Amino acid sequence: MTDSSSGLSTNLQAIRDRIAVACRAAGRDSSEVRLLPVSKTVDEARLRQAYALGLRELGENKVQEAQGKAEAMADLADLRWVLIGHLQTNKSKHAARFASEFQALDSLRVAEALDRHLQKEGRALDVLVQVNTSGEDTKFGLAPDAVEAFVKQLPAFSSLRVRGLMTLALFSHDEARVRPCFVTLRTLRDRLRQSAPDGIVMDELSMGMSGDFELAIAEGATTVRVGTAIFGLRYTPDSAYWPGFAGKSE
After folding, report:
1. pTM, 2 dp
2. Which architecture does CATH list for 5-232?
């Protein structure tokens, strides 16, 4: 992978081609799968190149980093910022100012804080509930059997538009260990579609990263989060962003 705009274009096309192939293999239309480029650690110049190539949303893990980029690139009014990492309640006021989507909701305290600050800002926010499908203590997210009760409490927060679920699969090169994480999320989403309160939409499944998104697509992913396969390897270790990182990356 090169640092040039042409290299970025090549990487993007390669990922889109892989998504198309994975969708065909799964009997799905590629329009059903959204590519969310993950831009953590990527500098502004590179992100402006990505914008010039047609990208209109970027995924970030850390609020402070994302907010700095959003402010620096505020001239690109149609660029959406998607927060995909764990959010502390004391950072919710910052997220409420600029984020268009939050994919890691797993706490009523965070839901309350976000809702309160969003109402002050006069904004609403698309959210996904994060589920710990791998059962690892080092990962954030709700246990699958706790999600239904959690979701039933979310209508109390009128500024949060619940759209579906997100997960980080087990960090492994063994597909037989990774696939059950995706199956668990899809099965849970399908069940919640029957029991979710009015106003709660369960359409989105954000799952799959650079190393496993084809497998996620086979199991029903509607959003795949891809960073290194687009922007190249990072100098900052993924352990700074994901707890328990063990060798696989977005």
Report:
1. 0.91
2. Alpha-Beta Barrel (3.20)
